[in-house]
Amino acid sequence: MLSHPHIVSLKEVFLHETKLYLAYELLERDLFQMMEERRARHSYLDEEHIKVLLFQLLVGVNYIHKTGYFHRDLKPENLVLKGADEYLKITDFGIIREAASGPCTEYIATRWYRAPEVVLRSSTYDAKIDVFAVGCIMAELFMLAPLFPGSSELDQLSKLCQVLGTPSKEEWPEGCAQALKRGLTFPAHRGQDLSLILKYASPEAVDLLECLLKWNPNHRYTCEQALFHPFFSNLDQAQLTRQLAEVNSMPTPKTSKMF
């Protein structure tokens, strides 16, 4: 159902003996692997490269949301790259959710990229959890390290508070009520200046990140709002579209037996 330039293409679905297989287009590597290589070389991504990757990610996620779904597990390992690491596609839709399908599973998504409402195990979250995950990925592209590397559920909540500051009842009444319901207390922290964490980021990049990482999902940007942020004002979208079309038309690398 999802067909888009920034979503990995499903080529075939077939039954082999007693197992069902999904055959996708072959892509070189994922964003996590690319950042691992950069970390090993102490080579930071320049902001223009980050801008291109982030724009493509937001375009893809926006399409998913407009189609009536949300991904629920956005992370670097689920973002695959093509064409000299310049073209990004979203993959792994194993826990995708239809927006209109009622209460949600409480415990989903990889911990470091979970929105606060998911950390608190709310069952009424929506597509804004993907937006928070995009913010986490954006920060990691600048830092080459996770922004919220929690070692447990409680530690994850603490990491969120250390960076974003402890939310007040006025700022996020639903979250404070959910924490009380679960017998949890937000650790007291003033938060940090994101411009000091993202040392190489422009003021526009920091401002966009702040808009993506709001405690309250009602105050968080949508993907569409993010795409119109000044951070992307000098991006040549027409050129990007042409280049992506060229890359998509390249022959698929030949491989040995698939299974």
Question: Mind sketching the topology for me?
Answer:
Blueprint: E1 10-16, E2 19-24, E3 29-30, H1 31-41, H2 47-66, E4 69-70, E5 79-82, E6 87-90, E7 97-98, H3 116-119, H4 128-143, H5 153-164, H6 173-181, H7 194-197, H8 203-212, H9 223-227, H10 237-248
Antiparallel strand pairs: 1-2, 3-5, 4-7, 5-6
Shape: globular
- The CATH topology annotation reads as Transferase(Phosphotransferase), domain 1
State the share of residues found in helices, binned by percent.
25-40%
Multimeric state of these chains? single chain
User: DSSP strand (E) fraction?
Assistant: 5-15%
CATH architect. name: Orthogonal Bundle
CATH class: Mainly Alpha
Characterize the main sheet.
3 strands, antiparallel
Could you explain how this protein is built, in words?
With 259 residues, this protein is of the alpha+beta class. The chain has a single domain (29-248), classed as Orthogonal Bundle (Transferase(Phosphotransferase), domain 1). Helices cover 40% and strands 10% of the residues. The chain has ten helices and seven strands. The protein has helices spanning 31-41, 47-66, 116-119, 128-143, 153-164, 173-181, 194-197, 203-212, 223-227, 237-248; strands at 10-16, 19-24, 29-30, 69-70, 79-82, 87-90, 97-98. It has a three-stranded antiparallel sheet. The protein has a two-stranded antiparallel sheet with strand order 1-2. A hairpin with a 2-residue loop joins strand 1 (10-16) and strand 2. The longest helix is centred in the N-terminal third of the chain and has 20 residues, at 47-66.
